[in-house]
Specification:
single chain; about 190 residues; alpha/beta; seven-stranded mixed sheet; 5 helices; about 40% helix; disordered N terminus
Length: about 190
């Protein structure tokens, strides 16, 4: 009887889960560092934004750090740039957390920290957290940002997030695990 109930619950849970195979295929050769938990959500956000802001008119970058000569102040999770002038049109903070209220608060704090850094008169240093060739930015790239958005897993809209990834936190963590295993086997591009 217990085994029947467990198998029934498992089949209901599996039936409700979305197919993450297309995401896996799209991210298999990204070479991203999936050991960092939030990376998978940032990469899925990038895929979603590339649909909304298609090439060749736009390009999307994840992991842009900013700081001063002494230290890093913060990181921008995902940014959409216009291709013709390299100006940022959208900056997104991505949070895949169990507690979405705390996540929303953290995203808003990070947004304010970046806006303060932009308005500060001192020299702002920017670059990519990955080793992408030619990845450098300055305050000029961010002077006319049109949108700042917060992005979470499904359910975040109920907690004030502007966008969701279209997948649950569990689905994102399953995807992350699959990508890490694939990288460990040498079948997917490693960082």
């Amino acid at each position: 009887m217990i085994q029947f109930l467990l198998s029934t619950l498992l089949s209901v849970s599996t039936a409700q889960a979305k197919d993450i195979r297309p995401l896996f295929e799209a991210l298999a050769d990204s070479g991203a560092r999936y050991e960092i938990v939030g990376t998978v959500c940032e990469q899925v956000a990038k895929l979603n934004l590339e649909q909304d802001y298609p090439a060749p008119d736009y390009y999307v970058v994840t992991g842009i750090y900013y700081g001063n000569k002494k230290h890093v102040i913060g990181e921008l999770d995902v940014v959409v740039f216009r291709s013709n002038d390299n100006k940022a049109v959208l900056v997104g903070e991505v949070k895949c957390w169990t507690n979405l209220s705390s996540a929303r608060s953290k995203a808003m704090d990070q947004r304010q920290r970046f806006k303060a850094a932009l308005s500060n008169g001192g020299g702002l240093i920017m670059g990519c957290t990955s080793q992408q060739a030619g990845c450098s930015f300055s305050k000029k790239n961010f002077k006319a940002v049109e949108k700042f958005v917060s992005i979470s897993q499904d359910g975040g809209e109920k907690r004030g997030f502007d966008m969701t990834l279209g997948y649950s936190l569990e689905e994102m963590m399953d995807l992350r695990e699959q990508l890490m295993q694939c990288q460990q086997r040498g079948e997917c591009e490693r960082p």
